[in-house]
Amino acid sequence: MSTLDPVAVFRMEAAECLEAIEAGLLDLTHQLDDKGLVDAVFRGLHTLKGSGAMFGFEALAAFTHHCETAFDRVRKC
Amino acid sequence: MSANILTVDDSASIRLTTKVTLTNAGYAVTEAVNGAEGLATAQTAQFDLIVTDLNMPVMDGLTMIEELRKLPSQAGVPIIFLTTESDADLKARAKAAGATGWLTKPFDPENLVKIVKKVLGR
Which of A4, A43, A54 lies closest to B106 in CB terms? Predict the structure, then answer.
């Protein structure tokens, strides 16, 4: 699959986002008040939602939207 | 002469889609991965239009256009937001900061070209 295929690029991007989200969530269990970690997890979720919706992954976008909303609330506390 | 467009987005897939769409429409497209890089890149060449995301690491799109509008060379460059956000307050803040237009993701590539042509008049 060509790297110039936006969907292929999204799949790689999604894998990176999931890694960043997982790492961020694990770190947050020890550093609950780390705003940088909250922002990083939020951005990963935001990209999964926005780009997922762009390339037809509606279920992913809909589910991630709920997680993103929760993290948006946390980062605005 | 084809117009020079700067696209700023932290999502590689969205940058690629924007670049392919606008390149196929005859425009020259340069990429930046966040607001800070967009701010720096905007000053390296004369861009006719900037298409930017809002939520980005390092520097968000709103801060980027606030900083760009402080520069005399960038005061009149049209800037279109391409974002998942549709909140009215954010749109008002973007307009106050100097945004020219707003397109919500997911977007129809044809619609992006239509808006770019309208803004550039070519």
Answer: A54
